[in-house]
Design brief:
Strand order of the largest sheet: 2-1-6-5-3-4
Number of helices: 10
Distance between the termini: 44 Å
Number of strands: 6
Radius of gyration: 19 Å
Shape: globular
Helix content: 40-55%
Strand content: 5-15%
Structural class: alpha+beta
Length: about 260
């Protein structure tokens, strides 16, 4: 397939069309992160069965993409997430670059390329894709009129061979998912602004752990720096999430920036 060419849209059966309509309608009602998670893990599974969804959304200052994970599996850890979303070495950044060149959904599996040229280094035995446990990627995004990436959605461990049906579904669904997630994050940002600048009850050690989280370090790397056990770091992270009322590490960093704890 040549880049820039548009494939013929596949036919959806009556049940799939009805499910697609229900998903689009449901995105209009999403207001909180757990609403979005429920949609992804329930209704969306009937059309696009997957285990891992990684979303990147442009931050307010336009300095980059804030990454978020919605996963139903325990073996995709925070360390895996940090590795695949690393801004320079992570596979998600690489796929975003390829997507920007083509402008169309990207479908990629370990042993074959589906809808776009792929760096052959990703196909090796020690590829990032294989090591991370993603297994496959079906991804698409949303851009600004100036070409900047506004949002990017990457589905992995899709439990069926990737093909033009997924290509078609991504083009329809991603704009609606993007709008819904932006609505969620805007409400979270508004909630974060209610926290007085610098006024939290984080301890000095928790602030130190938070700083390292913002640097993209894994729990193990933080433990090595602080000369404590990974379990101790994990406990600190859990306390940080609780005190900031954050849903995950990325959310905690966003909230910490909003209330002046991080630059």
């Amino acid at each position: 397939m040549k880049w820039g060419s548009m494939p013929k849209a596949p036919e959806l059966n009556a049940e799939e069309r009805e499910r697609l309509f229900r998903i689009i309608e449901a995105t209009l009602k999403i207001r909180k992160r757990h609403h979005f998670y429920s949609l992804v893990q329930m209704e969306l599974q009937g059309l696009l069965p997957h285990e891992i969804l990684i979303c990147g959304l442009s931050d307010i200052d336009g300095r980059g993409l804030g990454m978020h994970s919605f996963s139903s599996v325990q073996d995709f850890t925070a360390e895996h997430f940090d590795r695949v979303t690393h801004p320079e070495e992570g596979i998600i950044s690489h796929i975003i670059g390829l997507w920007q060149k083509s402008g169309h959904p990207c479908l990629f599996e370990q042993r074959r390329e589906a809808s776009f040229p792929v760096d052959r280094r990703l196909l090796g035995k020690d590829s990032i894709l294989q090591d991370s446990g993603l297994k496959n990627i079906a991804a698409h995004g949303v851009t600004h009129t100036n070409g900047a990436v506004l949002g990017f959605f990457s589905f992995s461990r899709v439990s069926e061979p990737l093909g033009m049906r997924h290509h078609y579904l991504l083009e329809i669904l991603v704009p609606h998912l993007y709008t819904a997630l932006i609505r969620v994050l805007s409400k979270e940002t508004a909630s974060a602004k209610k926290i007085p600048m610098g006024k939290t009850n984080l301890t000095a050690r928790e602030k130190e752990v938070l700083k390292h989280l913002n640097e993209g370090l894994s729990n193990s790397a933080i433990a090595e720096k602080l000369q404590v056990s990974p379990l101790t770091v994990k406990n600190h992270v859990q306390k940080i999430l609780y005190k900031l009322q954050a849903n995950n590490r990325a959310h905690a960093i966003t909230l910490a920036m909003r209330c002046g704890l991080l630059q």
